[in-house]
From TrEMBL:
Domain Gfo/Idh/MocA-like oxidoreductase N-terminal: start-end pairs: 3-123
Occurrences of domain GFO/IDH/MocA-like oxidoreductase (ranges): 131-247
E.C. designation(s): 1.1.1.18
Protein name, as recorded: Inositol 2-dehydrogenase
Physiological role: Involved in the oxidation of myo-inositol (MI) to 2-keto-myo-inositol (2KMI or 2-inosose).
Reactions mediated catalytically: myo-inositol + NAD(+) = scyllo-inosose + NADH + H(+)
Keyword ATP-binding: no
Record's subunit section: Homotetramer.
UniProt keyword list: NAD, Oxidoreductase
Domain of life of the organism encoding this protein: Bacteria
Membrane-traversing stretches: none
UniProt similarity note: Belongs to the Gfo/Idh/MocA family.
Length: 335
């Protein structure tokens, strides 16, 4: 069976997903594209022979669409995700699932009403081979339990429209989910420190920031978010256990050695650093839809991450006070 996919949001991520579905992955075809900017939808749809729509609602109602990929802005994800769930269609929704806990709860309620897990959140790092190995090492127990996780999320630069809260709700949300995934437990409190800002930023931005979070069992996580680092896209993570540590390797597999020393190329963006992870994420989603199964992170994962984001934003607004993460009880449906 070929999974007939409808894409909502024909921007950067939407186009990157279309490209991989059409040219790198198996089992799926993009049959419809929706964007509020109908010209953008047409530009993506026409070369594929797909139908273009001016709204997500029309695309979701199309009987030729089996499954929906949502790649619009986070704050407008919820209505389309809920409509797709109510139509009984599987959804791969780019991160964040939604920008408020209330919207995430509405998504979880819709899913529970339908009685089936239909929503996967686009936390693609869960499909990165490095993070997967780190998780397996911890789970094996060979090096004992985890005590600390050190993370660094560095982007070369960000556009002017990117504001300070995006350091957390758009960027650090990846480490929030990744640490929950690695440690298999919830984050219960968080604070945000704001060191001296770099001059290489737009004036309105506080950059860098450091999130310091604590999990249920007491693991301490620190995450340096630094989005105008200039030199490239650099993601680092080290998990400290009782009898050893494991960290992500550097960005590429080859290292040049010459009279300047040892060096490897630096990635420019998430697109090249997480190419394999994105492909795995979307490929496994397509295969799971074929089998009528859920894969990847759930709506609960999207909700839990958004609650940590909210607590971190509250800390940022209150000069770095430690804030307790407040959530509803986890529904048995997501156990
Ligand atoms: N996993 C990752 O590493 C990354 C994930 N993302 C996520 O992907 C999503 C999209 O981001 P980008 O592609 O960078 O944004 P973008 O701005 O390039 O594209 C968004 C598109 O959605 C359309 N749109 C907005 N509201 C809409 C609505 N209600 N209905 C239909 N179309 C609508 C816009 O017209 C635009 O074409 C965001 O949730 C973002 O956080 C983005 C970059 C990397
Ligand atoms: O999700 C992403 C972007 O939205 C975000 O703006 C970047 O900071 C991240 O590195 C990227 O993975």
């Amino acid at each position: 069976m070929t999974v007939r996919i409808g894409l909502i949001g024909a921007g950067g991520m939407g186009r990157a997903h279309v490209e991989r579905i059409e040219n790198e992955l198996a089992g799926g075809r993009v049959v419809a594209v929706a964007d509020l900017n109908l010209d953008a939808a047409k530009e993506v749809a026409e070369p594929l022979g797909a139908t273009a729509y001016g709204s997500g609602a029309e695309l979701i109602a199309d009987p030729d669409v089996d499954a929906v990929l949502v790649a619009t802005f986070g704050k407008v994800h919820a209505p389309d995700v809920i409509a797709a769930v109510e139509a009984g269609k599987y959804v791969l929704c780019e991160k964040p699932l939604a920008t408020t806990p209330q919207d995430c709860i509405a998504i979880m309620e819709a899913e529970q009403k339908v009685g089936k897990k239909l929503v996967t959140v686009g936390f693609m790092r869960r499909f990165d081979p490095g993070y997967q190995e780190m998780r397996a090492t911890l789970a094996s127990g060979e090096l004992g339990y985890a005590t600390l996780v050190h993370c660094r999320h560095r982007n070369p630069s960000v556009p002017e429209g990117y504001v300070t809260r995006n350091m957390i709700d758009d960027t650090a949300i990846h480490e929030i989910d990744t640490c929950r995934y690695l440690l298999d437990e919830e984050i219960v409190s968080v604070r945000v420190d704001a060191p001296r800002s770099t001059s290489r930023r737009f004036d309105h931005l506080r950059d860098p920031l450091v999130l310091v979070a604590r999990t249920e069992s007491g693991v301490l996580i620190d995450d340096e978010v630094n989005v105008n680092i200039q030199f490239g896209y650099s993601i680092e993570c080290e998990l400290v256990m009782e009898a050893g540590t494991i960290r992500l390797g550097d960005q590429n597999t080859t290292v040049t050695r010459d009279s300047h020393g040892n060096r490897n190329p630096i990635c420019r963006s998430h697109v090249d650093r997480f190419h394999t992870a994105f492909n795995q994420e979307v490929q496994q989603w397509i295969r799971a839809v074929e089998r009528d199964e859920h894969t990847g992170s759930t709506s609960w994962d999207g909700y839990a991450a958004t609650c940590v984001v909210d607590a971190a934003l509250e800390s940022l607004e209150s000069d770095g006070r430690e804030v307790t993460v407040s959530t509803i009880d986890k529904p048995a449906f997501y156990a």
